[in-house]
Amino acid sequence: MYSVSCCGLTVALVSPQTVRHGFPYQPTALAFDPVQKILAIGSRSGGVRILGRPGVDCYCQHESGAAVLQLQFLINEGALVSACADDTLHLWNLRQRRPAILHSLKFNRERITFCHLPFQSKWLYVGTERGNTHIVNVESFVLSGYVIMWNKAIELSTKTHPGPVVHLSDSPKDEGKLLIGFESGTIVMWDLRSKRADFRIYYDEAIHSVSWHHEGRQFMCSHSDGSLSMWNLRNTAKPFQVTFPHGKSQRDGRKESCKPILKVEYKTCRNSEPFVIFSGGLSYDKAGRRPTLTIMHGKAITVLEMDHPIVEFTVLCETPYLNEVQEPYAVVVLLEKDFIVVDLTQSNFPIFENPYPMDVHESPVTCTAYFADCPPDIIPVLYSIGAKHKKTGYSHKEWPVSGGTWTIGSQTYPEIIITGNNHFFPPVTLQMLYKLKTSKVFEKPKGGEVGRSAELVEEDPYAVQMVSWCPQSRVFCVVGISAHVILYRFSKHDANTSITSLEVRLQCEMEDVISPSDTENTVCATDPGGHSPQPQPSSPRSNTPDSVRDSIPCLRVKDRVIRMPPGYQAELVVQLLWVDGEPPQQITSLDLNSAYGLLAVGNCNGLAVVDYLQKTVILCMSTVELYGSADPFQRLTRSPRKNRQSTSVNTDSIHLFLPLISLLLHPFLSFLFRHHFAFGFVLFDGLITPFFPVSFFSVKGPGRKLSLPTDLKTDLESRENSFSRSRSSSVSSIDRDTKEAVTTLQFAESYGRKLDTLPTPCLWVGTSLGLVLLVPMSIPMDEQERMEEPITVAPTGTVLMLKGSVLRFGFLDCSGGLIQSPYELWRDLNAPEDPERPRRRKLVNFSPCSSQETASDGHLAVVCSERQAKVFLMPSQACLYVHNITESSFVLRADVVGVSNSVCLACFCANGHIMILSLPSLRPLLDVNYLPLTDMRIARTFCFTNGGQALYLSSPTEIQRITYSQEMCDNLQEMLGELFTPTETPEAQNRGFLKGFFGGNAQTFDREELFGEAAAGKASRSLAQHIPGQGSVEGVRVAAGGVVGDLARARIALDERGQRLGELEERTALMMSSAETFSKHAHELMLKCKDKKWYQF
């Protein structure tokens, strides 16, 4: 536990992971509790997700990280057994909001292959790779001395090993009989009482699964040749039925070969034919066929095609008793990348609408944004609009996984998560609110037009690179990988409108030089004298070669009137153009301000500011031009460029010598670290480093594509090693090939010059060289003048300097309070006109004419870079506080956030450290090594928000939320759902006297007499090792210490006492219920037998 308090702000990192959302990555196992109605999913990384009703969603992690092989619920007991690939069994306690491991059992000499826990039994059967079957007491988690050895299970005359145990189940007719299935095709019915085999079956095909008929007289097996065999206990010499459900008869009478049937479930019904449900079994005749789940109901065969391979499935039945008619009502299917539930009660087998956010990864997540304290009306509005676009055809019945309890806690507040595939989610339950597809804005490329965007990127040209959202005005901006920005406005009404397209020529042309003494600075492709260039005219969309491709965007915007449904409607598209055969550089920074009506974008060439109200470009300049005479660097010329055309024809790959700068900064280097849909975010250093050759162009003919690297770790290591080189203000020159990228932008009410007395709208610009520029603007106040008069922009050349690339700006008043950026309140531009209430712009915190009294004190500006944080006093620009965040690593993400009525600077470093600094004093409050940077996905998606929370993409399909606020940690228990709900176990059916007399009823026996230490003895200590649970109460006691530990121990003692009293009360209630039931049955039996003669029995 880490906890620090300063000036009323308390930050902590106590079990920081709060909630995990999304689909479990690489799932491996599935289990369902039919009484509690909760579901568990295991994954390859050792994670376990437990799901109930919406809001009941818990994530657990095995410390070993070993893959979960199998899960078994202790039905209606509030416990779960997990078997992992490291041959360890774990017992999880689900009677607490955060499940903990109570016991573990590590097998030393044998590998676990299959587990089976009978209903209402405390003895777990464990099959191993050697073919042996062990028995574990789940209460004490120790091995029994009773062992079924493989050489005793098979006949002594058998010369071959039967293989691993692939199935274990007790007979529905007699719990004293255990059916053991071996991989080779051998099946043994083992009598637990007599310790011998009742019968043995030797089949030619390998067995994958076995399923019983509820009467216990027959069972069904699935085999590796795609067949199903039915066996009757009266005659086990051969199966009485063998079918190939998907096998066709060939000319010679034999069945064609089929794929293995990996699992089969045989479930009976009272009023209809039984269900036979299995996965696999398709013929090999067609390649590329999708995975299927087959449902056989009587003579009807329904094949459900799946989008992804089937990992596991389980059938949900009305009763937990295996010796009763099962009455299946649904089947849960776990796929590699999805999770569906099929309704078996309807003939067309529809699926249930999934209430969990399992489609976070519907398209690869490339970035995330996390907004806390949103306007309270935004979530219902987004949900109502998004619900209209949902698919239809779902089952009308309620979601069957309905266990647990969850209530809205007292500490809830509106939150929204936006993922880079344009999905809106509200935590904690994370329900899908709204989806947005950016591709609908553009025309589908024709055959000859594919090259423009394809030559820039190898992935989807519409992929999202970053987002910016103003919750108050509901203006939403999306940056795409094809160097385009789309601006959306929200409306509750549909509209027929056209999309305005602005084309910006933001390209730095470096003139060829011969003499190294020529130190002329880089200039922008636009006229340097014009700070308000007009939009470029549309260019021909022909497939021109690189040498003559000029003023062409990568994509073509729809140039016709289109109908836009209610929701977010595209209004403006800004595209960067090709220049002299060079593709546009990707956008590295973005900011919008609804009060100003401005949008700013930057890349490694320069800066462009767009007035989205007037649909004009008001500024387009290179970074060097923004400095003017205040440029602190003397930029050297570069070598003459070689002819591009000859290079593209004669070379298969181009080796470019580039500086090692930030991925956030240099868009081309961002491709080096992309797997699937990775986009250029904060990954590299902004230091001036020696040049190194990077081969990332692969030229094919006249075009060229970016190819991905094969080794990511090497580049990261070189990135880390570059930090020994420091960059100081004494650097006098930089190479001209080092393009200074715009890394962060923010609009704010500030002072553009030192002598300013009143704040004015300003644009703060941070660059990859650690420099900060201020661009003041003059914006008309009157609404009509704002729509007609141009905005004047006058860069002042003001320069502030830091170490490393600038990442974040923040603004405080002189008392340390956070200053919010001005914004416009939302108005529906497509709503019908109301003469009495005209739609006028309502601006908040927009005060360019502030009074002298309120503005005389100025404000504080917080600037954070990859290495350093500084606090400046404006307008004097004096540096009040400075803190070197890290010397051995670099900051990936930094945000100025509010926590517990205070403001702090939150940083996430590449070495995994989370650092919290107080503001404005920049005092370290927290420094915890939480998450080493093992994947670029984490760096790309990590973000902080208000309330002491953060999130990141922990896997390609899951979002992990964490907290560093003590207040949030204290309220976490209230926010989580209860997994276990006290529920009475349903009673077994009374099957009648005659049916029980003739052997139809199940026989019970005392397993304690057979498996207990008194009868079976102790197991060998070398076979398995018992490990006490690290997450139990004892483990917490050891971890606690000091005053906080005393309080924790007192709280734990109270919880433990309350839990024991609760268990005692439950046991007492159960004993009373059992006594009443016994008395009732005894009385009924007495009345039934009172007047009978002896011959009537």
From TrEMBL:
Gene3D superfamilies: 1.20.5.110, YVTN repeat-like/Quinoprotein amine dehydrogenase. The keyword Iron does not apply. Keywords: Cell membrane, Coiled coil, Cytoplasm, Exocytosis, Membrane, Protein transport, Repeat, Transport, WD repeat. GO terms for molecular function: GTPase activator activity; myosin II binding; syntaxin binding. Pfam families: LLGL (PF08366), WD40 (PF00400). One of its GO terms (biological process) is Golgi to plasma membrane transport. WD repeats lie at residues 200-235. One of its GO terms (cellular component) is SNARE complex. It is a peripheral membrane protein. Residues 1032-1092 form the V-SNARE coiled-coil homology domain. It is found in: Cell membrane; Cytoplasm. Residues 519-550 are annotated as: Disordered. The keyword Transferase does not apply. Belongs to the WD repeat L(2)GL family. This is Syntaxin-binding protein 5-like. It comes from Pygocentrus nattereri (Red-bellied piranha). The gene is STXBP5L.
